[in-house]
Amino acid sequence: MMQDENLFAAMRGDVLNALDALAPGLPPDVLARVEVTPTKDAAHGDMATNAAMIAAKPAGKNPRELAAGLVEVLSARAGIAKAEAAGPGFVNLTLSPALLLAQLPVILNAQEAYGQGASRARKINVEYVSANPTGPLHVGHCRGAVVGDALSNLLTKAGYEVTKEYYINDAGAQVLALARSVYVRYLEALKLSPEAYIETVPGGMQYGGAYLIPIGEALAEKYGDEYAETPEANWLDIFRDFAVSRMMVMIREDLAALGVRHDVFSSERVLVENGGVERGLQVLRGKGLIYRGILEPPKGKTPEDWEPREQELFRSTEYGDDVDRPIAKSDGSFTYFANDIAYHADKVARGCPDLIDVLGADHGGYVKRMQAAVKALSGGRLDVVLCQIVKVMKDGEPVKMSKRAGTFVELRDLIDEVGPDAVRFLILMRKADAQMDFDLNAALAQTRENPVFYVQYAHARCRSVLRAAPASSAEADFSTLTAPEEMALLRRLITWPRLVEQAAESREPHRVAFFLYELASDFHALWNAGRENTALRFLQDDKPAETAARIGLVAATAIVLRSGLAVLGVNPVEEMR
RNA sequence: GUCUCCGUAGCUCAGCAGGAUAGAGCACCAGAUUCCUAAUCUGGGGGCCGUGGGUUCGAAUCCCGCCGGGGACACCA
Asked: What ipTM does the predicted assembly reach?
């Protein structure tokens, strides 16, 4: 157990062994609920287990009695300084300093790989952003981008093989509207009046943002007036493809500015043109889950133009949805949902049994049917992480509108104002499914109010010490580390592997941000303890052995800070001046 | 009307797949700076965890109702 990275997992193994000796043959679902957790209160030791309370009823024993039995067995284990029963049946464990200190060489040898989960040899696909290719990214997309990216990193850290994917919705009516809006800019670039044309467009010019002006100009330069007064059929596809590819370039630039890189960009159009939709639906047809039918009108307020229609429907109610969902319109063409089924089928077919979609909260009504579809397709699991809306606040007032896009706060504007690190970290300080206010004032503050600075400052302080110190060594004698502040820091460090595991399983990258904040706090506390008590300073010229132990602790702190920041995609700064 | 997310300190939020005395930051009050970076630290006040039931050894956490807020609700993508 001494060499294990995750002391909590190792200790859980010991607890389960001890439990088996006391109460043999407990069912697996009971054992699965046994956990070994860090304690909140130092008076309760380093770790606590609920084993006795969980096992009491199925074993037909009194929890306190079982706890006493566990205490007896566990007290004899190497590395456990003290075990005691407490409260209704907790067993509190105090680890020997030797066991705790033995983790320092483990961290120093592993470097950034510390906390890396064992390879699960399991692929997982995380789809995020997937903004329509009709304009620049805005703050609404930003949250999904940051959460999806950090979640991907987290899953990788936990041992999954992750594919980061972007789904380009380039097959629907929206990209046609984009093409028409670009056509208007094209006419303007040719110094022609677009009014007459706009009259002929059903919805008018949908995308009026100034960002389309250069696209219109580029088309004017490329084609001259060749398409100036010709029917849509002549130019619509050409303009659409041109505009979409330019939009994707722009979106990739926006993402790059945030430090987000996808592995795969999937095109809806390509999927549709290759017959992917029918291929995907084939699986469902084979299972008899597609039928022709008429949906009930929605309960409550019925839309005015509602009329019964016979359509092809997917029996999603078989898999927990509220009503069956249309996959084809009354004219026979496929709905967006059909395309999306096909897309998810495609992801499954590429070898990913587990899928994650990071979506905006406005897709909330969509998750049941998509989960139903995936379950029907592969029996696999689809997790949907919904990101609630972000309101950007400045001086207590909501900020809105951008010059270029015309409707929303552009992602670029936000990054230009506060930088990618603050944007990422602050977004990750909130759970994705809670609404959040993004406070520009706090993001720009260089104080404790701003958690990014707080954490980066801790790392910079580590580096500052290490620059002035002899090289750290995993071979040092760490037994001189005894101060409460030092041990508190060490105790925090060893929870990192467990945190990675838990945060990944619950798909909650925000836990990493909170962990880093607490780790930084422990480090700042130790640092300041050294101000009051010079004996606690890291570098002591006349005591090389103690200095070596302490720089080991500092180096380990820097390693964990850095790997946590790497998960969040935030730069670990070397110094702050 | 249905579905879904949310409601924790004056403000912004955590609370780790039910667990011990509910935690941070900001704001407020009182302290620490000849020092490895005070962009930091130490201490203090401040809570019917929206509300009413239920489940159990134990509920902020799980279940049901209600109140309040966000979002989505036939062929749009």
From this structure: 0.94
